[in-house]
Design a protein that fits this description.
This protein is an alpha/beta fold. It has one domain (about 5-135, about 170-220): Decaprenyl diphosphate synthase-like (Undecaprenyl pyrophosphate synthetase). The protein has helices at about 10-15, 20-45, 60-85, 100-115, 130-145, 155-165, 210-220; strands at about 5, 45-55, 90-95, 120-130, 175, 195-200. It has a six-stranded parallel β-sheet with strand order 3-4-2-1-5-6, sandwiched between helices. Helix 4 links the parallel strand 3 and strand 4. Bound molecules: farnesyl diphosphate (FPP).
Length: about 240
Amino acid sequence: MRHVGFIMDGNGRWARRRGKSRTSGHQAGAETVRRVVRHAVRLGIPYLTLYAFSTENWSRPRLEVEALMSLMERFLGSETPGLVERGVRLAAIGDLARLPAKVLKALDRARDATAGGAGTVLTLALSYGGRDELVRAARRAAECLAAAGKPPHALTAEAIGANLDTAGMPDPDLIVRTAGERRLSNFLIWQAAYAELYWSDKTWPEFTEDDFDLALADYSVRVRKYGGPDPAGIDTGTK
Ligand code: FPP
């Protein structure tokens, strides 16, 4: 297991069921982020990627977007010392130029402070959309081809991968989504080609270390074939 991704869903439902504001749901979600990161570090998971804000989330009500942005800013400020202490290196993927200046600044500070971390790489997907990332990567790859005077059919999957925001990271082995929804919602769509998917019915604020362990236990018994024959040779298809 090298890379786990989380689609953190259900903050709003968690809040509604308790008669609280959506913002308090996101605040409770930030607590889960803290717990999940610490657990991933304890387990020695090399890469952890969290879908924190999608390109589509920009269309939410202005007040909710602002509350989420200030939450990110505060979280980055308050969590950085703990991340440094645990050897976590912070990274971010997405169309970061759209983020408010304050969030970008907090992100840059956190990335600089944690740059020497040799443990878990924590990637926040912020203003992130898989299609947007893919279009940006394809454009860059096409520009490289044109600059080298090569024709379009010289474009390779490797060249696209090398121009994605996740360049240099292994593809996710496991993607966990909370709150009972069963879809990727534009998260790491290229990189998830062979990812195992795990759905938890818990909302994100309710998601615990034990739930994380359950997802990992479920993953550990999956047989990954990558489109090839069953590695256990149970069904060789030769009979
Ligand atoms: C989806 O729940 C969650 C989000 C759009 C935001 C995720 C943000 C956090 C978990 C909080 C902070 C994150 C960091 C990294 C500090 P939803 O609001 O769509 O839930 P709903 O579908 O039940 O309404």
